């Protein structure tokens, strides 16, 4: 029965991580998978998380199942992070949130919900986007299209082409936006550009789906929510897939959420029963631990301010590495302008290195970056900056 099955290709990003583990170069550097790393190259457990876990250990009373949608405490905390305190969407009960296993789980539940209730809709993703986006939507049988986003020559947002692309999208289709810290380019629309996009969305009548995996990694928790909050003011319906893998460092606990916003509270109640149905046939109910940590941190003043400080320090370290990368390359005599890297947000930058250069970096120096040229800036440290930039300088002059 299984003899005919061909091996699936490795995930282009997670596969790279496996290859890195087997790399024998003692000076190897991993700028591949999007995981935050500190100055020592570790992905630490946040202090706020550790403290929340200590409390949970003593206070937790049962391991019985959660409900399909998760706990009320967690779900309310997620909505407050998304929209801010006392937002009309929350007060009027226009949104419902389901706790999902990670942001990926949220996208998968969203995909199944869309396929069942909007089967004719095409979902449009930016070119480029996180590779798993196409795969998730295609795996439920949805059509996936792409819209213009990145201008490779100026290494910036091609806003004119983005508007032109979205102007072609018909009513009833779905457009996926990265809430902030666009993966893989690190380029986000400005406040004014979000406003124009939201306006266009209202005019065209497509449904926005926000993938929000990096809240707090760009400018700040509130600022990073600007895009989706702008849309929430202009259009009555949207979907939001949240992930807390990065901003709480809870990667392997699988904590995320799917939020649906509807025009009326009745619509929201009805649609949410269908979201719960999609969750039920996938994983029945979510894993408790990670979400309990998030809820504990967000509802306790001291833990919350510790978490915000820790989040800020992750964000600041990445910004610092961006600046240092640009200045170190310059000090190595690299003439190509890399200053765009210090203007981008979040963990990732599109370096502009081509596949040949990416492969040379790996073969000659044990430096791993994604084939598209995407660099995880969080993998840089004061210690590896010099050898990294020397290697890039050498590759660029070959
Ligand atoms: N969306 C984007 C843009 C991501 O970069 C990631 C990365 O992991 C995810 C979603 C998935 O998040 P999670 O690990 O919580 O499933
Ligand atoms: O883009 C990244 O590197 C992160 C981590 O299938 C990731 O989002 C990468 C690939 C994948 C799951 C997570």
TrEMBL record:
Its cofactor is pyridoxal 5'-phosphate. Pfam families: Aminotran_1_2 (PF00155). Residues 27-392 form the Aminotransferase class I/classII large domain. Keywords: Aminotransferase, Pyridoxal phosphate, Transferase. It comes from the Bacteria. InterPro entries: Aminotransferase_I/II_large, Asp_trans, NHTrfase_class1_PyrdxlP-BS, PyrdxlP-dep_Trfase, PyrdxlP-dep_Trfase_major, PyrdxlP-dep_Trfase_small. Its EC number is 2.6.1.-. It is an enzyme of class 2 (transferase). GO terms for molecular function: transaminase activity. Homodimer. PANTHER family: ASPARTATE AMINOTRANSFERASE, ASPARTATE AMINOTRANSFERASE, MITOCHONDRIAL. Belongs to the class-I pyridoxal-phosphate-dependent aminotransferase family. This is Aminotransferase. It comes from Marinomonas phaeophyticola.
